[in-house]
Every structure is written in C-alpha cells, then in structure tokens.
UniProtKB/TrEMBL annotation:
It comes from the Bacteria. It comes from Malaciobacter halophilus. Belongs to the bacterial ribosomal protein bS16 family. NCBIfam families: S16 (TIGR00002). This is Small ribosomal subunit protein bS16.
Length: 75
C-alpha cells in the first residue's frame, strides 16, 4: 500500500521535511517513489510547497496521506 508522508531531512534542531510517496511498510527515511513537495517549519514564515497535481493523482490511485500531510494539504 502506498502512503504519502513526511521524511525528515536537515540537521540537528533544524528539521526540514520532504513530502514523499512511499510504500507504507518502509521506514520513515528509507527509499521513496516520488517527492511531491517540502515543508520547512523552522523558517519564518513557515514554507510549504506541494505539487497539487501529483498529490491528487496519488490520491486517485489509492495512496493514503498521513494525518500531518492531510492537515498541511488542506491549507
């Protein structure tokens, strides 16, 4: 089953997240199928970039977003 979730990047105490499509059985930061955006909660203002066309495509083929991604995408 495919999932749309955040994968952590960046360094200590400066997290940066990519929004990725991956197999739900894989670990958080392991290989992913496609990167469809990013989220930077540290910068001021917070930065969110999401490719809505690809996000909607993955939803249409059955990928399930995590709670955090669902909340971010609704913004």
């Amino acid at each position: 089953m495919t999932a749309i979730r955040l994968t952590r990047m960046g360094r200590n105490k400066k997290p940066f997240y990519r929004i990725v499509v991956t197999d739900s059985r894989k670990r958080r930061d392991s290989g992913w199928i496609e990167s469809i955006g990013y989220y930077n909660p540290v910068s001021e203002p917070k930065v969110l970039k999401l490719d809505e066309e690809r996000y909607n495509y993955w939803l249409s083929v059955g990928a399930r977003p995590s709670e955090k991604v669902k909340k971010l995408a609704s913004k």
